[in-house]
Amino acid sequence: MGISALIALATTIVAAPAQAEPITLAIASPLSEPGDVRSGEAIRKSAELWIDHINQQGGIIGREVELGKFDTKGKPEVGAAVVERAITERNASAILGVWSSSVVLAMMDVVHRYNVPMLCFYSWSDDITKKNYPQVFRTGPYNSQIAGDVAPYVKHKGYDKVTVLAEDTDYGIGWADAFVKAMKGTGLEVNVVQFQAQAQDLTPQLVRIRAQRPDAIIVQAVYAASNLSIKQAREVGYQGDIITGWDWPVLPDFWPTVGKAGVGVVYPTFYDPSLSLTAEGERFRKLYTERYGSDPAIFQYFLWDNFNAVKAAIEKARSAKPAALVETLPAVSFEGTTGQIGFQRKEGTVHFNQWEGFSMFFKEMTAQGQTGAEAKPVYSVK
């Protein structure tokens, strides 16, 4: 090869554009026990699906997106530690997939210190947004709003006495406190019975509840106790109504665990066929069912919105630097899976970096083995 050819080749090599570094988004989720593994798996599946889908579309601002997966084990101290690792070791642009209010509250101080955005979707403590950390955002419900929406259903049923069976976490206790406050002055007697979040034998608590003779038990739990409490309540002879803690009756382990005890259970949910999905929501459902063979739960739609919020912020800022996203996220507006996504920012309140666009539906499992699509709608709050 001649000298002129070598010079031309060297010039071409020097002039070739450098490959842009991938953008890293990290999930910090309960991927092993004693954490809520079933929810962690749902988070992981949704996150991996989103990453693959976005990269097939060419990434974000021309850069490939990588997923960092960090296991919180459902423990606050572990959650705080792995979020710091995600930031310092993986240079994560944002933290997503977070779960359990107690864990999230511990993580918040870390992202606040490093000025990295964290997006929540199904962690309900009011304090998550009420603390007004600029780095913390939520595209999902919160305790005081949810408790207030359950109140009309309880009144509709004409109950005189209700017992809340609550796990001893910021989520469980926070929801119970909010419900007691929401029902104050209505004449309804509300008792609260707590249990250790990872407990699997709730017989002592349920025997105590049976003696109280409530018209209904409202279960606030996310671990194994969520299903086991239903089965064990019937085993100790409780015959009143059971209202579960949200969407977990639609998850695959519900019927194998509860059996016929699940018939008649009512669960509040944020999804119903009457709630029209957007084009983005239909796209997510199609992608999810094609890969995993089942419909996603509503909280997975909210998680998908979390990821798309980060994408919108990166595109708006033309940067994946965390500080730029903290500045840009409050102003993003885009079509989510169930409607338009944007964040309120009312300082000094829970409505800070908070999305408010959800509705609540109550559905009853009227036959063993029913799916969420087959469950009977019994009430709604919009």
Structural description of this entry:
The chain is of the alpha/beta class. It has 2 domains: 23-141 and 277-342, Rossmann fold (3-Layer(aba) Sandwich); 144-269 and 360-381, 3-Layer(aba) Sandwich (Rossmann fold), CATH 3.40.50.2300. 42% of the residues lie in helices and 18% in strands. It has 13 helices and 16 strands. β4, α5 (127-130) and β5 form a beta-alpha-beta unit. α2 (37-56) crosses α11, α2 packs across α12 and α6 (143-157) crosses α7. The longest helix has 20 residues, at 37-56. The protein is globular, with a radius of gyration of 23 Å. The N and C termini lie far apart (75 Å). 49% of the residues are buried.
Topology:
Layout: H1 3-15, E1 23-29, H2 37-56, E2 65-71, H3 76-88, E3 94-96, H4 101-114, E4 118-120, H5 127-130, E5 136-138, H6 143-157, E6 161-167, H7 170-183, E7 189-195, H8 203-212, E8 216-220, H9 225-235, E9 241-243, H10 254-258, E10 266-269, H11 279-292, H12 298-317, H13 322-328, E11 334-335, E12 340-341, E13 344-345, E14 352-354, E15 360-364, E16 376-381
Parallel strand pairs: 1-2, 1-3, 4-5, 6-7, 6-8, 8-9
Antiparallel strand pairs: 10-15, 11-12, 13-14, 15-16
Which characteristics define this entry?
18% strand; three-stranded parallel sheet; alpha/beta; 42% helix; Rossmann fold; 382 residues; 2 domains
Element-level helix/strand string = HEHEHEHEHEHEHEHEHEHEHHHEEEEEE
The Rg value, from CA coordinates, equals 23 Å
Please state the average pLDDT score: 93
Straight-line N-to-C gap:
75 Å
The CATH topology of the largest domain: Rossmann fold
CATH architecture of the largest domain: 3-Layer(aba) Sandwich
User: Given this structure, which CATH class of the largest domain is correct?
Assistant: Alpha Beta
Biggest sheet statistics: 4 strands, parallel
What structural class do you assign from the helix and strand content?
alpha/beta
Total DSSP E strands: 16
> How many separate helices?
13
CATH homology-level superfamily of the largest domain? Response regulator
Measured by DSSP, the beta-strand proportion falls in 15-25%
- Return residue spans where pLDDT drops below 50 for at least 5 consecutive residues: 9-17
* Count of the domains: 2
